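Technical note accompanying the year-one report. For the benefit of new consortium partners, we illustrate the data format agreed upon in the data management plan: each record pairs a sequence with a structure-token string. No post-processing was applied to the example shown here.
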Amino acid sequence: MPKAEETDQRTERKHQSTIEPIAMRVPEACRYLGIGRSTLYVLINEGEIEFIKLGSSTLILTESLRSLVERKRYPAEITTAVDSE
């Protein structure tokens, strides 16, 4: 029988692994969106994606990536029409 303390630690570890980071490095942001590094930098230069600099590190705001996806999203009926062409 696990002790209550062990159960609490396991629950805490599960919770920590599901927390989304506030920001991520460029390679992770590219994987997140499924795009290349140069495309990500184009989006940054166009003001489509927000970032912060900490020392020499460039961190991409996760909220900004989600916002980009929402702005670029097409309704299902348009997507279906595009797929059938």
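Partners are asked to follow this layout when depositing records. The chain is about 60% helix and 15% strand.
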